[in-house]
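User: I'm writing a tutorial on reading structure tokens. Could you give me a worked example: one chain, its sequence, then its tokens, then a sentence or two explaining what the tokens reveal?
Assistant: Sure. Here is the example chain.
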Amino acid sequence: MTKPLLSIGIIYKNEIRCLERCLKSLQPLREAIPCEVVMADTGADDGSRAVAERYADILIDFPWTGDFSAARNAVMDCCSGKWYMTIDCDEWVDPDITGYVAFLTTDKDFDFASVIIRNYDTPALDKGGSYSDFLATRLLRMSTGIRYEGTVHEHWPYQGDLRTMMLRGAVLHHDGYVYQNQEMLKAKQERNMVLLRKQLEDDPDNLIILNQCVESSANMPEQEGYLRRALAGVAEKWSQWELFGGPIYRHAVRMAMRDSLPELEQWIGEAEELFPTSIFLRVEIAYFAFGHYWNTDDYDGALRWGEKYLQGVADYHAGNFDRADLLASSLDKTDTHSRLSVSTVLASGYLHENRPEQCARLMVSLDPAEMNAKQIGDCVQNFGRLRSEFGWDTDAGILRFWERLREPVPDQERAEQRRTPFLQMGSVLFRGEYREKEAAGPQFHRPAYTVFLPLEGKCPLGDAAAILEANNPEILTEKLHHVSHWAEMPIQALAHALEQGAHFPPSDKPLNMEEHDTLAARLSQNGTWLLPYVQMQPEPAAMDWQELCWMRGLLMAAVRTYPWSSKEQDEEQGMALARRFARMEREFLPRCYAAEALQEGALFVLPPLHRFGWYCTRAFDALEQGSPVEYIRLLRAGLDACEGMTDMVEFLAGHTQEVRQLITPPELNALADQVRVILARFTPNDPAVAALKQSEAYQKVAHLIEGSASPVWGGLLQ
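And here are its predicted structure tokens:
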């Protein structure tokens, strides 16, 4: 066998879920360069051993002692390669191995090499699952003689004259945390802390161990104590304080943010003074400092730290930092999500500080295909403010943004997921309250929704913006004709078109009844008063099917939302709405339902509001025929058929002139009571009774005393 250039070491126990995936991923590397795979079985009993036997060049047994370094060093002792690489079972090598091959086949004067560990927090990798990236030192030149240290969080100790390189194009994917529940994570944490407490007891001034204690005791009461001891060690310049100071202060700032500790700004300042070039200061501490100053409305501080963070991330990915920093700890917040979160908020900070040029420049540099929903929403708002508050030419930017977010990256499903928040946040710019607020601002130039004008014909927001900018009824009718996604159209555009007299719905592009009802409901929810639109339409008998369905949707939404019980409601307007509703039902119901279904005993087949409409139609017929009592009876029957219309029935009973004449005023009831008292003093045949019944007062209340008419009160039959 050719002497291997690379030895790949693996320790495992029960890893049947992922072991073969890991070993298969090594095959391209084994084919590209001379490799050997050396594995140690630490007590597997789940079938992992059989998998290992199929792939390992050397397989040893190593009884587990609770010491990770001991197990890994046993593997290293069996290796003969020039370079050693370690990989965990729940990791796998990215198919692109160019970074590994380039490094290992070129004579480079380095002793260590670091690779990206892509740590997933979701198993949906084929759909672009979320993840974070960090660097880990995974390759070592065997001639250094270095071996692992630490029973847990094992590592290769750094020595000042050794050199490290970060490999580009070298990624290890990791999904181990996805499949660990809280109980498993807690058990692992407790196991690690038992070992670390013992190490710290033996070596209390060791910053390496203290840093590991801080990292492993997350959310445990003792974590703050370890952190403060570590900070004291840095201040007292214990051994390797310069190497571990950056990550220790990173933990301090993170904890201070989480627990609202009073030392937050003090620790940020100390970190910047002591470790100005540390990648931990330039990335992680800058990230948290940005969030802190933004949340406290210190925009100068937020912008300074936001810019420092973005530059730090750019330097990190370009390799422009001291790689020795990463030997002390893993680096977080270099991932795309974190970078975009800061970028989109920073862009709005530039606008707050009247720096639109920097906002626009930053926005152009961002890729919407990488964004999540919140980041896309932030960008839409920034585009709108650039347009509204600064009069900025955003046409090219918004067009590029829209086209890019719709590209199928990584697939069409993700593109659709990005499209949704763009439309949702964009719709906010059309709302009446938003437009009123921006128009009252001191820097108002144009409505923010005009930012979407370049998207007319491409996007519902572009169509809506073009409609709002037009006033000619014929032009508006034509624009409505071209709308294809009514569900995504900001309803304010349709309201504007209707107000200007545009014809709707389009006769040659019919909408179904559900679409009519949804649009009418959205108009009413938008605060639009629907009766004027209804009154602009011809009478129901003269309508075609589309017009009648649209009228139906408008009227059903109107009667549901009209403020029937409000003291400020307009009696004439409310009665006009009710009568129009009844006329629409008179025309609509016979067109859509068989005559047999429109009989009182068969009305249960109708939707509730149409059952009420049937009774409402007949109630107005009874009123026209001079029978207000029957009018009330039919309204009450309609209420039984559709309980949600109580307020409308009460309104009609109280505001119909013919019914009001039947309602007994309180003073008439009082007069009737007085007459009853007088009558009680005499026998029925007493002449005084006959005389009283001839009086004008008795005639006013005779129906109340003798029951000659059904008493009515409150608009409903007793």
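What the tokens reveal: The first helix runs from residue 19 to 25. The first strand starts at residue 6 and ends at 12.
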